[in-house]
Amino acid sequence: MNEQVSKLFDLSDCVAIVTGATKGLGRSMAEGLAGAGASVVVVSRDQDACTRVADEITASTGQDALGVACHMGEWDALPSLVERVRDRFGRIDILVNNAGINPAPISVIDMTNEYLDKLFAVNVKGPVRLAGLVAPVMAARAKGSVINVSTVGAYAGGPNFGAYTSAKAALINFTKVMAKEWASMGIRVNAISPGPFNSTMMQGAAKLDAEFSTRAGAATMQRRVAECDEIVGAAVYLASDASSFVTGEDHVVAGGMLRA
Amino acid sequence: MTLPSFRLDGKVALVTGGSKGLGRAMALAFAEAGADVVVASRKAGACEEVAADVRAFGHRALAVACHVGEWSECESLVARTLADLGRLDVLVNNAGIAPVPPSLDGVSEELFDKTIAVNLKGPLRLSGLAAAHMGDGGSIINISSVASVRPSPHTVVYAAAKAGLNVLTKAAAQELGPRGIRVNAIICGTFQTDSFARSVPSEEASRQLAARVPLGRIASADEIVGTALFLASDASSFMTGALLSLDGGVS
């Protein structure tokens, strides 16, 4: 590849944290960022899975990868994650807040206090807290890119998935807030809102409703469900200097699925 | 896994308004990324200069003088592209004009018609003509403006035309999606281009504009290149009908 254009998407020397990185979209993004030259920190709840995926990424890309177990719903566990990464790599350039949960569907009438608290803890509070801890580390080098993974459902609202889709909508709003608060620190903050991907979450939904995937694919302009690797281009684009003037923007990667 | 490629090897890209500013930056970046490039604008000489720069990257280039506001000139542009380069994979509807009327009742019929013709009529016609010859993996990129979502009195006609371009993007994406052709728009904020320099002559005015951008600056023309390559290439294979803001955080 020609020097100038290839450099735009190059992440050599960068350190990226990807949460929820042991499977699905998170794993694809972690491996994709490593493929673009970044060292990656693979985060999920299960240390064994993190270690295994980190090793696999190193094997396939030749990049340094570290697996760190952390529960995104535990506010007080997040500082030690950031400290661990700083100690090991000395810098953080990219944060992909990908971890999220979307448990069994439940109507608003039946929703419990515990259910809402858990959903918002993992899908909103964790990502916001982690970004808040990482931003000062990025600011020390006056450069960084935060990518919050939301969902196309954040626009339409999903019946019986209200806690999930509204939490993800909150994350988009936080994305815009962070972008404005941190622009002067050299940190760009953007969101990616995936539509139907052949992800772990989609496979979970298919267990409850065999036609879910087919219907979701049919609802896109491209008439299909995407493979997880198709998220990687957006992640590398937003992580790299290729998007140097882009901040506060949600990138709907949903095959043109209508927002409402 | 297959890593995303932002390359355009073996593809043919057509850029309108390709002789200067953002259009020129995209034409040269596409060549760097491996594409043969058609450079279209109203001035043949200026197109030829950019075409020569494209050839310096080792790729074929075609310079075509074209006024995209004329239906027949759109037809001959696409016909020449196919005749000379054999295919068409990427269309960038970048040509645009933004004449400033004194007031709403000061908008002349000529200004209205001209602005709509170049910013909306041309892109619609070119999209239809180009898509007819594109296969799976084709990509159409419409260059829109932040004015389309945040209009101001002096941009009234331009903003309306660009808002029309946003809608064209979504409608065309629906029609062409099943055929594997993607259509997206880039909603540009303030860029340092020739036309910007003409419309904002003082440094003080330029500083004031930059102060309103969260990133605190005006973009260089080259900063459109990353977004254009992302949308033109298979790296964005599951994105269509999207309006992507490239504005330093303004919207």
Task: Characterize this entry briefly.
The complex is a heterodimer of chains A (260) and B (251). Chain A is an alpha/beta fold.
Give an overview in words.
The complex is a heterodimer of chains A (260) and B (251). With 260 residues, chain A is of the alpha/beta class. Chain A starts with a helix and ends in a 7-residue tail after the last strand. Chain A has a single domain, classed as NAD(P)-binding Rossmann-like Domain (Rossmann fold), CATH 3.40.50. Helices cover 47% and strands 15% of the residues of chain A. Chain A is globular and about 45 Å long. Chain B has a seven-stranded parallel β-sheet with strand order 3-2-1-4-5-6-9, sandwiched between helices. Chain B has a two-stranded parallel ribbon with strand order 7-8. The interface between A and B is large, with 48 and 45 residues.
Spell out the blueprint of helices and strands.
The complex is a heterodimer of chains A (260) and B (251).
Chain A: H1 3-8, E1 15-19, H2 24-35, E2 39-44, H3 47-61, E3 65-69, H4 78-89, E4 94-97, H5 113-139, E5 144-149, H6 153-156, H7 162-182, E6 187-194, H8 200-208, H9 212-218, H10 232-239, E7 250-253
Chain B: E1 12-16, H1 21-32, E2 36-41, H2 44-56, E3 61-65, H3 71-85, E4 90-93, H4 109-131, E5 139-145, H5 156-176, E6 182-188, E7 191-192, H6 194-199, H7 203-211, E8 219-220, H8 225-232, E9 243-246
Helix pairs in contact in B: 1-2, 3-4, 4-5
